[in-house]
């Protein structure tokens, strides 16, 4: 259930040194660093922020803080499970990429058997916690996200550049966890569509947001992806024109979706933040489309993170007037 585009690359510079050197250095890595590489906490934080935003847009302040805490703990465990499973399946390609060669499974510090046991344990415990904290609907959404990310998106990365479109669905599905946990389906059937509109806008934003974000990553690491045999758009089209076109198209489509996010609450402040974030994303995507170089890609990457964090924070602060 890890957002596929939000990789370790988003806030970390390219891994220095050769693959062999990375693996050698990795043998002396502490368990804490290995754990971080396995579960990728930055990604988990973004998933949890998405769940909280969807919950808040649907129901406002939770009736039970303890239940929400259990839901988030379970979501974090399911996200960790998907990350470990992904690294098991991609261990060979991880070894071929300098920025991922030091991961514990790729580097041989954790056996495949141990990794599968950890994957299964975190998934089972996480699913139980999500069900207990958010109900059957939230658990179903969490499981669907895990399956789509691990069983569909991950294998597709070596088959077709359309993997990004599939992975973006997995990246947006955590919205459904928060919506279901907050009683969104029941509110919908009762005729209260206000929260559903905001959550639908948020899911659309999350889906579209991933294209410029991931194309920036795919451009920066295009040579490593090519060496690993991944069928990224920047690999099949080294000119970057198709990646730039996808980035700009998605960023432009995000503008109306971001503005719709503010409609149910009627919040002028949310409308303003949404407008500024969306326009900034369009400008960064346009710059990348024109220049198609590492500097514009890195600027697009940083802008994408800032825009999403701003939108999620504004959704929580201003998006529910209940």
Strand content is: under 5%
CA radius of gyration: 19 Å
* Gap between N and C termini: 30 Å
- Kindly name the structural category: mainly alpha
Quantity of strands, as a count: 0
What does the overall shape look like? globular
Counting DSSP H or I runs of 4 or more residues, the number of helices is 16
Please mark out the parts with pLDDT under 50 across 5 or more consecutive residues, or reply none: 4-27
What is the domain total for the residues? 1
Largest sheet: none
What's the order of the H and E elements?
A: HHHHHHHHHHHHHHHH
Round the mean pLDDT to the nearest integer and report it. Answer: 89
- By CATH, the architecture is named Orthogonal Bundle
CATH topology-level fold name = Farnesyl Diphosphate Synthase
Tell me briefly what this model is.
This protein has 322 residues and is mainly α.
Describe the structure.
With 322 residues, the protein is an all-alpha fold. It has one domain (8-318): Farnesyl Diphosphate Synthase (Orthogonal Bundle). The protein has helices at residues 19-26, 31-39, 41-59, 65-89, 91-96, 112-134, 136-156, 163-172, 174-181, 184-189, 194-220, 222-228, 233-236, 241-260, 268-291, 294-318. Helix 15 (268-291) runs antiparallel to helix 16 (294-318). It is globular and about 50 Å long.
Output the keywords.
Farnesyl Diphosphate Synthase; mainly alpha; 322 residues
Show the helix and strand layout.
Layout: H1 19-26, H2 31-39, H3 41-59, H4 65-89, H5 91-96, H6 112-134, H7 136-156, H8 163-172, H9 174-181, H10 184-189, H11 194-220, H12 222-228, H13 233-236, H14 241-260, H15 268-291, H16 294-318
Helix pairs in contact: 3-4, 3-9, 3-11, 3-16, 4-6, 4-7, 6-7, 7-8, 7-9, 8-11, 9-11, 11-14, 11-16, 14-15, 15-16
